[in-house]
Amino acid sequence: MDQVKWIGAVVLGVALAFAGTAWLTHTSGYSSGFETGKAAGYQAAADEKAMAAWANTDQGRLAYELAQAGSVEKLAHCNGKGWELEKGTCYPYPVVEDKKSMVYGWPVGKSARGTPSRKINVSWFDSLFGSDA
Asked: What SS3 string covers 52-106?
């Protein structure tokens, strides 16, 4: 009878050890996954806030108008009629149609007037110190 008690105690001890190991592994994995998901959520929210802040700038509004006019894809991929990408720069070239040389552009948003009404600072130096241009 002592042998049966001893075997039962060993089996119970091994089962408790497996259960404890499984519980620790689950808890550690759950905690790690939770923290990873939480960090990813915060990062997505920060990116979303940054995008929303940019969208409210003058450049963001102009980009939105270009998107509404259907020009963003053409500008980004340089795939307008007569446009060619050379060494990372998009150049317009004349296209001959009906014996006439044509140069094509792109539709712009409603606020485009040909000349900017305000200078958009692109350089960090200009944004800090201004420019006389």
From this structure: HHHHCCHHHHHHHHHHHHCCHHHHHHCCCCCEEEECCEEEECCEEECCEEECCCC
Handedness of CA 30, 33, 35, 38 (dihedral sign): negative
Q: Say what percent of the chain tops pLDDT 90.
A: 8
Torsion of CA 43, 45, 50, 53, to 10 degrees: -170
Would you state the pLDDT for residue 130?
Answer: 58
Quote the pLDDT of residue 117. Answer: 45
Which residues, at least 6 apart from 92, have a Cβ–Cβ distance to it below 8 Å? 80, 82, 83, 103, 104, 105
Question: Which residues of the chain fall short of a pLDDT of 70?
Answer: 108-133
State the CB neighbour count (10 A cutoff) for residue 66. Answer: 20
